[in-house]
Amino acid sequence: MILHMDMDAFFASVEQRDHPTLKNKPVIISGRSKRSVVSTASYEARKFGIHSAMPVFMAQRLCRDLVIIPGNMEKYRCESGKIMKILAGFSPFVEQTSIDEAYMDLRGLNRLFGSPENIAATIKKNIEEHLGLTCSIGIAPVKFLAKIASDMNKPDGLTLISEDRMMSFIEGLPIGKISGIGKQAAKQMETLQIKTLGDIRQYPLSVLTAKFGKAGARLLELSNGIDQSKVTPEHIRKSISSETTLEDDTIDFEDIKRILLDRSQIVGALLRKKGLVCKTISIKIKLADFSQITRSRKLDTPVSSSSAIFNEALDLFKKIRLTKKIRLAGVGVSGLQDKNMPSQMSLLPIENTSKDQWESVDTAVDCISEKFGPHIIKKASLNLK
Ligand code: TTP
Ligand code: MG
């Protein structure tokens, strides 16, 4: 089962918690300018028809007693971090998808924390007790339904769509509820008599893909209760890359080498900052005629030193036979994993040792850069030009 958690009126609830006089009052969070829109509205304000993205002047017209509060993103980010930490206490399989939303894969948690409903109730209790905030949780056998479920009984909701109920739920699910189906697409579908996800099954794959492209194929899968998307924690999902468009197109090897070195250092520093190592290194080259070349290599042993990244990037670049000037070059890493996660050791321990030495140089450089700024210390070769 997959769990989806979404905080209730997140920014507004944080302010209501921190300013008890605002409790039970219609409150919106917004910018200060005349043209500002509502970032979020407390549930008391929503009763007046006020919602996110509505111009503030309109919200004021709908509710005379409306309290308008300027947002404090730093505070909300900090609260978000605390919420994600609570979730991480239950499972490493947590995927944060926005400032106040996350998925959790519940497999294997039964023994520790009980049934899915128990897990959800404990999460809600922890968030309320530690942070004084409420959230809504949805649980379903697949990801897209978990998200829909979390929205069904807001605020402070807990909704479970069991395996048994799933198909009948899908049958009557309005098509517009599916994330990614906009109003326009929903209208278009209505002309085909498709109002619910169940209606999709009246059409063969060929018709759906002809009409809606890839989305058609995905909808057909969803209508059968199949959702290929998995809960993907950040360290698995993300890749890190850095690229630069050159001031002047060039084919000069030394110039390009310097760019790759510079980009490798940026990528390496980000990787180490996140406490990650990478297994795959790639380069991207765009030529003057806008065509693009990408190359990547999977390593036997994960690395995080800028030198290791650069050496691989340069090696990949050397294998390209360049006939035109380039206008953009970039370095990327993927296959990211936690630095402390055990991985298969390299068969060549000597190679490892030399990489480790560079890693300590990098760590020292990272510390200096953090303290004095990113340009205070760099490879001598980057100064040649
Ligand atoms: P949401 O989870 O979409 O909304 P919410 O938490 O305020 O309310 P709900 O109970 O319906 O989940 O967004 C989370 C936060 O993101 C929200 O508190 C403010 C911010 N946000 C914006 O700044 N602009 C927007 O248009 C939206 C939708 C949200
Ligand atoms: Mg929310």
CATH class of the largest domain: Alpha Beta
Architecture of the largest domain in CATH? Answer: 2-Layer Sandwich
Intertermini distance: 56 Å
Question: How is the biggest beta sheet arranged?
Answer: 5 strands, mixed
SS-based structural class?
Answer: alpha+beta
Question: Can you count the helices?
Answer: 15
Predict the CATH topology of the largest domain. Dna Ligase, domain 1
Bound molecules: thymidine-5'-triphosphate, magnesium ion
**How much beta, percentage-wise?**
15-25%
Number of strands: 12
Low-pLDDT ranges? 343-354
Outline:
globular
Mean pLDDT: 89
**Helix coverage percent of residues?**
40-55%
Structural write-up:
- This protein is 42% helix and 22% strand.
- The chain is of the alpha+beta class and 385 residues long.
- It folds into four domains: 2-8 and 74-166, Reverse transcriptase/Diguanylate cyclase domain (Alpha-Beta Plaits, 2-Layer Sandwich), CATH 3.30.70.270; 10-72, MutS, DNA mismatch repair protein, domain I (3-Layer(aba) Sandwich); 174-218, Orthogonal Bundle (DNA polymerase, domain 1); 239-383, DNA polymerase, Y-family, little finger domain (Dna Ligase, domain 1), CATH 3.30.1490.
- The chain has helices at 10-18, 43-46, 56-62, 73-88, 110-113, 116-131, 143-150, 163-172, 183-190, 205-212, 214-223, 234-237, 253-273, 306-318, 349-372; strands at residues 2-7, 27-30, 38-41, 67-70, 94-98, 101-105, 135-140, 158-160, 240-250, 276-287, 292-303, 326-338.
- It contains 15 helices and twelve strands.
- Magnesium ion is lined by residues 6-7, 10, 100.
